[in-house]
Amino acid sequence: MVLLVRYEQAPGGATGRVLHLTLNRPEARNAMSLAMVGELRAALSAAEEAGDVRAIVLRGSGGHFCAGGDLKDMAAARMSPDGANAMAAVNARFGELCVAFARTGIAVIAVVEGTVMGGGFGLACVADVVLASETAQFRLPETSLGVVPAQIAPFLVERLGYAEARRLAVTGGRLDAHEALMLRLVHEVHAADALDAAVARVVGEVLRCAPHAVAASKALIARARLQPAANLVGEAAAVFAQAVLGPEGTEGTTAFLQKRAPAWAPQ
């Protein structure tokens, strides 16, 4: 077991639960092993199937977020008789993890401290909200090691833009928390002793939003990255109509008129 998995009832009387996933290999600065990849995928799948998880809080133990891929797994792949295919398979497993977290309809909040390197950098890029400790140090060391940030490259471009992704790739990028904030890699920076309060506040903000509306909004925004606005007018109108006429839209507008919190929100 390399993850700490904890469910909490959503606070303040809100419906649903909050899932806390903690990367739990502090002796390796939470380097991402294949076992950890499998557990993260399983935890996400279970949360999606449960249907009542409103937010996922992803963080690392021991003062670090994630030091990237586990060198032991890569060494084993290198020694395999089919080394190239084995190495590609290890790499693809992590890419599939990033895609799964990027595509989920559940709100994902990453809490980053200390080392945020390689694959850990990629996980930060796929989260909806990233809260950083002042201790966070971001590194993209792959090219300085003679390798490529292969699976996280699309998410770097998505999060930071083409120019910044190129700059970080060709310089073996290093960023502190405040530099990451300037690039909008992270959304907030806090002192270590204020981080938990910030997490609680952001979770509360997520819980004030309707869960199906959040999932539909994430999906539409993802499509909007890749298509001209004119191509999405009809689809967006259909999504809007379905939301307005559905249970959440009905409850939300009724609650607004009655000057009360909707049923899904903290009271």
Structure characterization notes:
The protein has 267 residues and is of the alpha/beta class. 49% of the residues lie in helices and 17% in strands. Strands 1-2-3-4-6-9 form a six-stranded mixed β-sheet, sandwiched between helices. A hairpin with a 7-residue loop joins strand 1 and strand 2. The longest helix is centred in the middle third of the chain and has 21 residues, at 83-103. It starts with a strand and ends in a 10-residue tail after the last helix. The mean pLDDT is 94.
Keywords:
267 residues, alpha/beta, 2 domains, 17% strand
Helix content: 40-55%
Kindly estimate the percentage of residues that lie in beta strands according to DSSP. 15-25%
User: What is the CATH domain class of the largest domain?
Assistant: Alpha Beta
Label the overall shape: globular
* Residue runs with pLDDT of under 50 for 5 or more positions: none
Q: Give me the count of strands.
A: 9
Structural class: alpha/beta
Tally of distinct domains = 2
The helix count comes to 11
**What does the average pLDDT come to?**
94
**CATH topology (fold) name of the largest domain:** 2-enoyl-CoA Hydratase, Chain A, domain 1
Cα-to-Cα separation, first versus last residue: 36 Å
Succession of helices and strands: EEHEHHEEHEEHHEHEHHHH
CATH superfamily of the largest domain: 2-enoyl-CoA Hydratase, Chain A, domain 1
Computed over alpha carbons, the radius of gyration is 19 Å
Task: Profile the largest sheet.
Answer: 6 strands, mixed
In spatial order, strands of the major sheet run 1-2-3-4-6-9
* CATH architecture level-2 label of the largest domain: Alpha-Beta Complex
